[in-house]
Amino acid sequence: MNSERPLRSVVEDIVPPPDVTFAPQRTDLTGPRSPTRGMGGRESQPLLGRDHEHHDFENHFPDDPVFMDVIRSADVAIENGIYPEIIYQGSSGSYFVKNAEGKKIGVFKPKNEEPYGHLNPKWTKWMQKICCPCCFGRSCLVLNQGYLSEAGASLVDLKLQLNVVPKTRVVKLASETFNYNAADRAISRTKKSLSERFPDKIGRHIHRVGLPPKVGSFQMYVDGYRDAYYWLGKFETEPLPEPISTQFQFQFERLVVLDYIIRNTDRGNDNWLIKYDVEEGEKPETPERDWTMVEQPKIKIAAIDNGLAFPFKHPDSWRAYPYYWAWLPQAKIPFSTEIKDLILPQLSDMNFVQELCEDLYELFRKDKGFDKSKFEKQMSVMRGQILNLTQALRDGKSPLQLVQMPLVIVERGKPGSGPFAERVKTIGDTFTQSFQERRPFFSWC
Ligand SMILES: Nc1ncnc2c1ncn2[C@@H]1O[C@H](COP(=O)(O)OP(=O)(O)OP(=O)(O)O)[C@@H](O)[C@H]1O
Ligand SMILES: [Mg+2]
């Protein structure tokens, strides 16, 4: 344990997301107002700040000017009729957000369009949920908080300096292209026509003419990545050369650390992306040149789609949601010294872990459905995962061995119970560590 380590805030730990690129901002655009923008004297106010859904979230990120600029450019684009575009695959409403030039800059997932959100636009999935509830959803997760899980994964990534999750925060956006109910659209139309007919008398009394902003997760768009399925297939027939395979292994370990800590239940190979290319200026002259022969190529991983993590209990035995990366050859290689040096000093410090829980609390508590006892359970699972991970790193285990370790929960402030309970006292708090009694059906988890 390193009690000397100074406590640092998430803000100070912020590192840039992987290879996020976005086009230059345009602020001089004129044209139709975005649905979230007020009228008259209110036009100069922040576009996205209204609290329609009574969540405690605002589009204000004084600690993060880069992210703030991206949200502003999304705002300008929407004002100019360049609306977020639904992502067709997927079980819920997810949207590519663009800037004024039409370039993708983010992925927005509104809370009320999540699989359990009441405005989920994918009705076939909704039918599945109604007709076959046992095949839908995950009973170990807090319902309809996917957007918090997305932002929480980014928080963990930043705090641990893993740098594999594209920066994700909770924002509010409104767009014609989002799924609204008929009432919201009708109110919006009525307000608009009244304001246009009586701009002085009525317009200035109407706070917002447009559609109500939706709260949701906004993840920075990463350019030049393809899903892991594609690249892993390629690597099977054309193995990566050194030192690229070592670089890939280091990146892979970071993904493992993230997924294990947040206990991601949805890490299929479609939910992480890989970028592997040649630096600008180093492109081979001949197009037929072998892609394994490029000089100083870079390989990077982006862990996207983190909305099904932070369970409040370990998944049930019959449906254990394995980490699909556990089947990859990279999972059989013991954790590197590099990842141990990065992770162990942080996670061995109980203050650091406590701070991580507090930062997540600050994020999660803003949801209108926040339940403190559920949150405590989520943190108990996470502490258990951290305990296992720390042990696995110390013992020189591989990711595959890590996921085979017995599942642990570490509860705060409760007396020990059961034959496996063990009490650990740390500054000001008592923690009880206990093992999950039943082994999961899939031995991987
Ligand atoms: N940050 C990002 N940068 C670039 N592309 C992204 C990003 N996030 C998502 N995508 C692209 O959008 C697709 C869908 O994203 P994602 O899996 O997060 O959405 P989803 O609606 O949760 O889908 P599903 O329900 O199928 O998991 C991804 O397969 C990827 O191609
Ligand atoms: Mg997905």
From TrEMBL:
It is found in: Cell membrane; Membrane. It is an enzyme of class 2 (transferase). GO terms for molecular function: 1-phosphatidylinositol 4-kinase activity; ATP binding. Residues 1-11 have a biased composition (Basic and acidic residues). Keywords: ATP-binding, Cell membrane, Kinase, Membrane, Nucleotide-binding, Transferase. Pfam families: PI3_PI4_kinase. It is a peripheral membrane protein. It comes from the Eukaryota. One of its GO terms (biological process) is endosome organization. Residues 1-48 are annotated as: Disordered. Residues 81-412 form the PI3K/PI4K catalytic domain. Its EC number is 2.7.1.67. It catalyses: a 1,2-diacyl-sn-glycero-3-phospho-(1D-myo-inositol) + ATP = a 1,2-diacyl-sn-glycero-3-phospho-(1D-myo-inositol 4-phosphate) + ADP + H(+). The keyword Secreted does not apply. GO terms for cellular component: endosome; lysosomal membrane; plasma membrane; trans-Golgi network. Belongs to the PI3/PI4-kinase family. Type II PI4K subfamily. PANTHER family: PHOSPHATIDYLINOSITOL 4-KINASE TYPE 2, PHOSPHATIDYLINOSITOL 4-KINASE TYPE-II. This is Phosphatidylinositol 4-kinase type 2. It comes from Branchiostoma belcheri (Amphioxus). The gene is LOC109463204.
